[in-house]
Design a protein that fits this description.
- The structure is a single chain.
- This protein has 122 residues and is α/β, with parallel strands linked by helices.
- The chain is 21% helix and 39% strand.
- The strands form two sheets. The chain has a four-stranded mixed sheet with strand order 1-4-3-2, covered by helices on one side. A four-stranded mixed sheet has the order 5-8-7-6, with helices on one face.
- The model has no long low-confidence stretch (mean pLDDT 96).
Length: 122
């Protein structure tokens, strides 16, 4: 149902390096590049995550409430991606761990302050 999600950045090269390294942990690679941004996915036609400079030329700013959740295939992968995000300079928004009986997630903010989660159900 979701085609793509984009996050804003004020420093595209820095954001590109962060997401190249982070999304590789989940099998992601660049599927589209253009002057203002880059999209990553696991296939050219599947759902993707993009980082771009805002079209209106104004500075990018993270929202309070919006969040992108990245699906993992195991709790170990959640832990791995969460740790990798922090090692790449992300800030902690909630350590990886169980949230209720069937949800396991870790939360962080990228280098521009956008909030993300990595999770698995079950």
């Amino acid at each position: 149902m979701i085609g793509y999600v984009t996050l804003g950045t004020n420093d595209l090269p820095r954001a590109a390096a962060f997401y190249d390294a982070l999304l590789a942990e989940l099998g992601g690679k660049r599927v589209m590049e253009f002057e203002r941004g880059i999209l990553w996915g696991t296939s050219a036609n599947g759902a993707s995550l993009g980082v771009l400079k805002p079209f209106d030329g104004q500075g990018a700013a993270p929202g309070n409430g919006p969040m992108v959740a990245l699906a993992a295939d195991s709790r170990e992968k959640v832990d791995q991606v969460y740790r990798r995000a922090l090692a790449l300079g992300a800030t902690d928004e909630g350590p990886a761990g169980p949230r209720g009986d069937s949800f396991y997630a870790g939360y962080f903010r990228d280098l521009d302050g956008n909030k993300l989660a990595v999770f698995i159900m079950g």
